[in-house]
Every structure is written in C-alpha cells, then in structure tokens.
Design goal:
By secondary structure, the chain is an alpha+beta fold. The chain has one domain: Chitinase A, domain 3, CATH 3.10.50. The chain is built from 3 helices and 4 strands. The protein has a 4-stranded antiparallel beta sheet, sandwiched between helices. It is globular and about 35 Å long.
C-alpha cells in the first residue's frame, strides 16, 4: 500500500497562505512558520502529519499528497478546513 509523509500549514485565507508560501520561497523555515501561523494542532510539531495512506485525508489534500513532487511546497489548497500549504516529505 502506498504511503505519504507530509507537513502542512493551515490558515483561514488564500491570501495568508500565499504570503506564507512566499516567506518559505524567500528562505523561511517551514516548520518555524507552521508553529507561528498554522491553526492545526500539528503546528506544535512544525506541521508534521507523519505517515498516512490514500483516503485518510480529505480529497483535495489527499490528491496533492499522492501526486505532487516530494519536497516542493504546494498550495494554498482549499479544503473544508481552510487553506493549506503542503509539503510532501516522503512517499513510498
């Protein structure tokens, strides 16, 4: 069974997600920015979600985690929870 490992930053607006994504592109540390801005409880661990299989996350999030290149920040991706910046850290 395929698995992915990812980390994310969850925010309320697309604009906030785009601003944080630019901070990351400018050299900002993903984990530090997750701890600072993310509204998800995973923020305490730098946004790390650990390993999961297909179908364990909401559809839009799941799609990114199993199709996007590893190590490239994706988003903002809209789900029922808000807007996510997602980085797949490993996939097997």
């Amino acid at each position: 069974m395929a698995t992915a490992e990812a980390r994310h930053i969850l925010v309320k607006t697309q604009e906030e997600g785009e601003r944080i994504k630019q901070e990351i592109a400018d050299g900002g540390d993903f984990a530090a920015l997750a701890r600072k801005y993310s509204s998800c409880p995973s923020s305490r661990s730098g946004g790390d979600l650990g390993a999961f299989g297909p179908g364990q996350m909401v559809k839009e999030f799941d799609h990114v985690c199993f199709t996007a290149p590893v190590g490239v920040v994706q988003g903002p991706v809209k789900t029922q929870f808000g807007y996510h910046l997602i980085e797949v850290t490993k996939r097997s």
